Amino acid sequence: MSSLDNGQAPDTGQTSDPGQTSDTGQTYDNGQTSHNSGDRDIKGSTRIAFGFARRELRAGLHGFRIFLACLILGVAAISGVGSVSQSMVEGLRNDGRALLGGDMSLNLIHRPAEEDQRAWLSERATISKVVEMRAMARGIGADSKRVLVELRAVDDLYPLYGEVRLGTGNPDEDAASDAAPGSLEAALAFADGSWGAAIDPRALRRLELKIGDRVNLGEGSFVIRATLLKEPDHTTRAFTVGPSFMISADALPATGLIQPGSMTRYDYRLALPETQTALAFRADLEETFPEAGWRIRDSSSAAPRVSQFIDRLTLFLTLVGLTALLVGGVGVGNATRSYLEGKTATIATLKCLGAPGELIFKVYLIQILLLAALGTVIGLVIGAFAPMVVANLIGDALGWRAVVGLYPLPLITAAVFGLLTALTFSLWSLGRARDVAPASLFRSAIAPAKGHLSAGMSLSILVSGGILAALAVLTAVDQKIAGFFVAAALIAFLVFYVTARAVMALARKAPRSKLPSLRLAIANLYRPGAPTPSVVLSLGLGLTVLVTIAQIEGNLTQQVEQNLPEEAPGFYFIDIQPDQVEAFDEVVESIPGITELRRVPMLRGRITGVNGLAPSEIEVPSDIKWIFRGDRGLTWSRTPPPNSELTRGDWWPEDYEGKPLVSLDQQISDGLGLELGDSLTINILGRDVDVEIANLRAIDWSQLQLNFVMVFSPGLLSQAPQTQIATVRAAPEIEDRIERAVTDRFVNVSSIRVKEALNAVTELLEQVSTAVRATASIALVAGVLVLAGAVAAGHHRRVYDAVILKVLGATRATIGRAFLLEYGLLGALTAAIAAVLGTTAAFLVITEIMRLDFVFQPWAVVSTALIATAITLLFGFAGTWRALGQKAAPLLRNE
To answer: Three-state SS for 170?
Structure first.
């Protein structure tokens, strides 16, 4: 038991008796006079406060276990996320050359580099050339399987950095050994009259083939000699829709797939001399070939999209961790209040003996900070080991290995978050302990002490909370999103707290029920010391996050699984050559059951200027930065395309032959602040072309029809090398027949099944949503901890209530039902508030950010209600069972 309990003075060598001298050389006359300093006030004596705090802490951590658990959870989440993020980014930097395939990469679409460009590069660096495109792999035989693959034709130098790991086609053998079954060069070489190929195991399974079988690709035939288990540059490749199919660059001409305008990517990987820096080489390259039109990347930013994804993921996980910490802050506040309530007699006695409020404040503030430091340190230790755990779990599954190490910045940030949270949520109770009069404290058992915080203490809470909010925003990757989070968290806190108080007020005024259990349960909602606000706050935030995620996931899944399949075409056919158009139409239309065939010309281009300014010189909103990343699909049309609405300007005449004009997506125009008559510079086949914005369109992307951000007028693009892309809508039962007929007749044409793409998207959504829900549950775990703390804090009062009710004749069943009804009502109340807030947040995300129609998902609300009610009932039952098990006689004799 603490030495301050029951109003006794601690054994510090000090005494409150008049004229007694302490070991500090000070003498107290009822706490007001000192032998050495006359009327000096002891409130400034931090040394005395430390002495009291040290004696108090000797009693152990009783009452602070939930306090510590909440801090440990939040700090561990924030420090762990930050450390893992930095370890992954560091791994990206370290493996940048292998991920990129060289020190520098030059990428071109549709066309290879010119002879003089290749000669210039060869004189200054080692070059490896990789050609990539989509193609249809087909087994031998009329009824064989067809699979869309990502064809990669590599030279003898590939890979310049890293290694390709090959497999035997037997998963058990491949998993048991890292040894490759021969070299890549041997697997792809021309031997025994055939070229070889190494393919992704997924393609092998879908083609229903095995190692040694033959497979057709375009006009060529290949022997499958190995499977591709690892490609060092897989992570940094462009968006892929099929498994990899690797052949030798020397075998590519035999396929007949390289056609004018075909969707072909030429990637030149450079290994620079050790004396040459990438920055200097790039400057020299751009000066020598200013209009080459290639996309240049170096190993310092080998995977910019991956880095952006990591940043976004880190932001989300950090905000989840911060949510858990804020929810835990409620637990910190509850634990502090409960602890100080247990010290009511001690504090009142000390104040009666002359101890000033400032000394009381310091004593318990020191205890809180020491315990907060303990919880923070434990959380930091856990977070510091997170990179090691993650690195061992994922290995090189991402294409690179996270760098295990100690990362100070996320640890320092998490430590500040933890200490500030503990301080902010403890100040209210500490301030009341300092400012409330002793008489009020003595009466608190039957009438809770009332009083207002001083202006200085209120300001301290606001400053501490403001610093916490500012830190959350300033340390975030996206400060705008973090700012919205802070605002939303404050609103949610306010809504939950106000609603809880309103429910308590309504319960107080509710008519008396004839059922004793229900009457007692309702009374418990507003009784002195009722846990209603803390339970609603603690569970509410976590449940709100889960409702938001569930509603968003449900809406996206419905779009992909229900709405899109009804409206989307069955196939996309790409790389149709101009001289194949009529024959293609004939083949497709000859099959009964075709309901729609639509074709448009297509080629690729990149925006290199806006009104004469480079993209790097203008401010681009984050939601449309994608428009400047790499090449975009372009088309031209004499008539307005369907599934889009002309919002400004007029369409050009069908026989237009004037200067190049473009029809632009309204969303892009609004984001860049463009008007009709403004100009864009588009690099097409290595040539910069200035086009004038003639009109704007609102595009409906939801039906997966052929739509383009930029549609050009006839003339310039109609004369450029191009292919056609077509969509076909047909009955599901004839889709196989359509694909076989088209790919047998036109070996260069690739088919993309929309259903398979949607299934892949659905699977990805399920994986992402599962991971997001699991992560967001951290906030719910924090809420459960706070709930457990609230139940534990009220245990003594429940025991007291149960004993009195027993003495008055209440049965165990009646008391048990009352307590369970109380927690059931709390759970239902919390679920209702979380459902409203979560659904509102999801509605805003779906309609304002994703621009989709919102459909209410009732199962998300029902599941939330069940979770909330189950959790509160579980903990309520645990606390109730213990309270009902107490004997009345010992407690009454003690009283």
So the answer is: coil
The pLDDT of residue 145 is 85
Q: In angstroms, what is the C-alpha Rg of the chain?
A: 35
188 in Cβ contact with 154 (< 8 Å): yes
What are the structure tokens assigned to 773, written together?
């829900």
pLDDT digits (tens, 9 = 90+) for 566-623: 556 778 898 899 889 999 999 998 988 888 888 999 888 889 899 989 888 888 887 7
d(C-alpha 553, C-alpha 542), whole Å: 17
Among 419, 426, 428, 431, smallest CA distance to 468 is for: 419
- H or E element in which residue 730 lies: strand 723-730
CB 785 within 8 A of CB 69: yes
Instruction: Judge whether residue 765 has pLDDT over 70.
Output: no
Q: DSSP for 420-466? A: HHHHHHHHHHHHHHHHS-HHHHHGGGTS-------HHHHHHHHHHHH
- Outline where 182-303 has alpha helix (H): 184-188, 201-207, 278-288
Virtual CA dihedral for 831, 835, 836, 841, nearest 10 degrees? 140
Phi, psi of 463, deg, nearest 5? -65, -45
532-558 vs 754-793: helix crossing angle, rounded to 10: 180
Identify the CA nearest to 340 among candidates 436, 253, 262, 267. 436
Backbone angles phi, psi at 705, to 5 degrees: -80, 170
Q: How far apart are CA 697 and CA 712, in angstroms?
A: 13
Residue 832: partners with Cβ closer than 8 Å, 6 or more residues away:
865
Structure tokens at 245: 């199919």
DSSP secondary structure code for residue 101 in this structure: T
- For residue 585, give the 3-state DSSP assignment: helix
Task: Please choose, from the candidates 354, 498, 268, 342, the residue with its C-alpha nearest in 3D space to the C-alpha of residue 43.
Answer: 354
